[in-house]
Write a structure and sequence with these properties.
The complex is a heterodimer.
Chain A: H1 2-11, H2 21-26, H3 30-58, H4 69-104, H5 112-131, H6 159-186, H7 199-230, H8 244-261, H9 264-278, H10 285-298, H11 314-326, H12 328-342, H13 351-374, H14 376-382, H15 386-416, H16 422-448, H17 463-492
Chain B: H1 2-5, H2 11-53, E1 76-84, E2 90-94, E3 98-101, E4 107-115, E5 121-130, E6 138-143, E7 149-151, E8 156-165, E9 175-184, H3 187-199
Classes of the chains: A mainly alpha, B alpha+beta.
Chain lengths: ~525, ~200
């Protein structure tokens, strides 16, 4: 009780906040919540990364040496779940919390109490998920896609914990998305019209609508898995009139928009950073907005390209193949716009720009391997091989994660008020860039040569490439510790950052001092 | 907090914004409830779609009128595979692994089933055809799968299937696979019984 009254008393004064833990537990400030999301996401990134290290250590040599196959399967499953729902999505929500109110001239998010909740249920969800690893029979071992009947008939006893943790993660994402939509629609400063919003805000608005549309479908899917496993329903059991292929349709109806949820905010980040370091306006702003919207709409009609081998009729395979290929048109518009933005710009290559350029190149490689996978007859060979693993790691690691790194370096001076150490940042970039390609590029060849994914052991002819991939993996894992050092050093001190540390940067957030004051835009800014 | 940030906005404006936010939030929440329902609605939608188009191979025509026209020009191979569902202690095998037939030709094949347990068990075979689209052209005039089978302990039986493949089957389908899975119809009851015994 006394703490509560203390909070209220403190809030009467402008820049005072409760001290210690209670500040973080009770906070409704978008900057605090953004910081917590970002720290949480980085912790999850390290935990999920440690699991990837277990996977790569086991695959360093053929044969079984370090872990048992069932534990290996738990590692691949939980690595995927943590990276998707624990690292990438919370990082974007954290960036949204920090940046959207500052970018649109709002004093805070529209629904601050809900904001507090949507963050604080997230650690609970992952505590449940991680604790299931220690249960008798082990944690989830059916892959992050939890195909039935692997997640029903053959699933471990802890599956209920998996289901509940996914429910909570989903609720957290949904609350975050509602908050973003309400903030962007209702809280823009006078004069901030939709077509004046920075692209990060645009891409997040569209992402939030995607979240609202598909996270409930994920919730429905896991609920069906729960009742199939524990309460005798037969949504996915042929014995009771259900169909396991139905699971894949429902899951991928969520799953495909989900992969765009993890990349659209990246497009927004890159669209902020590339113009800043090219000292030019973004080329083709409105085409960027329409391209983002088209990608989001198309994401609802391509889901079955994940299931070409389930025996669909040829007409359906062709439909999903052409729709998938169609997505490369708006994506190409974006890539060409970024390149055109750099064209004849006066470029400098600070760490955020290096990550942004690496994003453009490597994400495009991931896009091309995606196009290869979209070709139905070719997919019959590539399906469930390491080629798929290479593809989605190129779009998620060198795509989503690289853009998050770029964003962190770009806005760190605004968040902390200090400049980060540029040479350490560059070291982090080059170490990451080289190791990530050693890690993921040979996977293409492994997949084309026929190495299946999700196996703890493999045929001897894959040994050399796997060893190389593992070495790249360990190097990439270690490189991320440099990032930790850079961020901690920057938060603790360093050269004081000016209000606008990047010469070409544009946007309302650069008009306020660094670090950004605890309460910003208390009077609506004037929009030029 | 919110109260704090509104200092420079007049109270009426602040309240207006708050109610605007609440209205939009409520709309978005109803969208979420709707999409959760849509997730469940996909189940019957999928069944209807599959039934209409026959694309998941579950639809096997039990057209009980024998065929009259035979297309001697073509030969189509029909392969048979069988399996028993978990908890079904029967042996279940086709007598021949495949037959080559002309479209429109009435053909009889037999499947052998044997109850390996010491209980009388009722079985039900559920068919599936691959490629899925071919299920539209496989017509059964008589089939053991039309009824349930009851076998006493150790009893075995030859079960007949009379079928013909429609003459309209597309030219690119040369091989079909008909798969039967045999389910134990006593199982839910026996499961309850064993659970009860365990509880007692």
């Amino acid at each position: 009780m006394s703490t509560l009254s203390a909070v209220e008393e403190h809030n009467d004064h402008h820049d005072h906040k409760p001290k210690g833990m209670m500040r973080w537990i009770l906070t409704t400030n978008h900057k605090d919540i953004g910081t917590m999301y970002l720290i949480f996401s980085f912790v999850m990134f390290l935990i999920g990364g440690a699991m990837a290290m277990v996977i790569r250590a086991e695959l360093y040599q053929p044969g079984l040496q370090i872990v048992e196959p069932n534990f290996f399967n738990q590692m691949t499953t939980v690595h995927g779940l943590i990276m998707v729902f624990g690292a990438v999505m919370p990082a974007f929500t954290g960036l949204a919390n920090w940046l959207i109110p500052m970018m649109i001239g709002a004093p805070d998010m529209a629904l601050p109490r809900m904001n507090n909740w949507s963050f604080w249920i997230l650690p609970m969800a992952f505590a449940i998920l991680l604790s299931s690893l220690f249960m008798e029979g082990g944690g989830p071992n059916f892959g992050w896609t939890f195909y039935a009947p692997l997640s029903t008939t053959y699933a471990p006893d802890s599956t209920a914990l998996f289901v509940f943790s996914v429910h909570i993660m989903g609720i957290s994402s949904i609350l975050g998305a509602i908050n973003v939509v309400v903030t962007i629609i209702n809280m823009r400063a006078p004069g901030m019209s939709y077509m004046k919003m920075p692209l990060f805000v645009w891409t997040w608005l569209i992402t939030a609508f995607l979240l609202i549309a598909v996270m409930p479908v994920l919730a429905a899917t896991v609920t069906m898995v729960l009742t199939d496993k524990y309460f005798g329903t037969s949504f996915f059991a042929a014995a009771g009139g259900g169909d396991p292929v139905l699971f894949q349709h429902i899951f991928w109806f969520f799953g495909h928009p989900e992969v765009y949820i993890m990349i659209l905010p990246s497009f927004g980040i890159i669209s902020a950073i590339v113009p800043a370091f090219s000292r030019k306006k973004l080329f083709g702003y409105s085409s960027m907005v329409y391209a983002t919207a088209s990608i989001a709409l198309l994401s609802f009609v391509v889901w079955a390209h994940h299931m070409f081998t389930t025996g669909m009729p040829v007409a359906a395979e062709l439909f999903f193949m052409y729709c998938t290929m169609l997505i490369s048109v708006p994506t190409g518009v974006k890539v060409f716009n970024w390149v055109a933005t750099m064209w004849r710009g006066s470029l400098t290559f600070e760490t955020p720009m290096l990550f942004a350029i690496a994003f453009i190149v490597l994400f495009t490689i991931g896009g091309f391997s995606g196009l290869m996978l979209a070709i139905t007859p070719a997919d019959f060979q590539y399906h469930d091989t390491y080629f798929v693993v290479a593809h989605f790691h190129y779009v998620l690691v060198t795509g989503a994660i690289f853009s998050i790194m770029a964003a962190a370096y770009y806005w760190l001076p605004k968040w902390t008020g200090n400049m980060y150490n540029e040479s350490l940042g560059k070291l982090h970039f080059w170490a990451s860039l080289i190791s990530v390609n050693v890690l993921f590029f040979p996977m293409h060849f492994l997949g084309l040569a026929g190495m299946p994914r999700r196996v703890p052991d493999y045929a001897l002819q894959f040994a050399d490439f796997n060893q190389l991939v593992s070495i790249g993996g360990f190097a990439f894992g270690l490189s991320q510790l440099i990032f930790l050092v850079v961020v901690v050093k920057c938060a603790r001190g360093g050269e004081k950052a000016p209000a606008k540390p990047w010469e070409g940067a544009e946007g309302l957030e650069w008009d306020m001092p660094s670090p950004a004051p605890y309460h910003s835009h208390t009077t609506p800014p004037v929009i030029k | 907090m919110m109260k704090d940030d509104d200092v420079d906005i007049t109270p009426t404006q602040g309240e207006k914004l708050k109610s605007k936010n609440t209205v939009l939030m409520a709309k978005l929440f109803s969208a979420i409830v709707l999409m959760f329902g849509f997730g469940y609605a996909l189940v019957p939608l999928y069944d209807v779609l599959c039934e209409v188009t026959g694309i998941n191979g579950r639809l096997v025509n039990d057209n009980r009128e024998a065929s009259t026209a035979v297309d001697k020009e073509r030969v189509v191979r029909l392969q048979f595979t069988t399996s028993v569902a978990p908890g079904m202690p029967w042996k279940f095998k086709p007598k021949v692994n495949y037959v080559d037939v002309h479209p429109g030709e009435n053909t009889v094949v037999y499947f052998k089933a044997k109850n390996l347990s010491n209980l009388a068990i009722t079985g039900q075979a559920v068919p599936s055809v691959s490629p899925g689209i071919a299920s539209l052209y496989l017509n059964k005039t008589e089939c053991f799968c039309f009824q349930q089978q009851i076998l006493k302990s150790g009893e075995s039986v030859d079960m007949g299937l009379v079928f013909f493949i429609s003459t309209e089957i597309p030219k690119d389908i040369r091989t079909l696979t008909l798969s039967y899975t045999l389910f134990n119809m006593n199982q839910p009851v026996s499961k309850t019984a064993s659970n009860l015994q365990a509880a007692l």
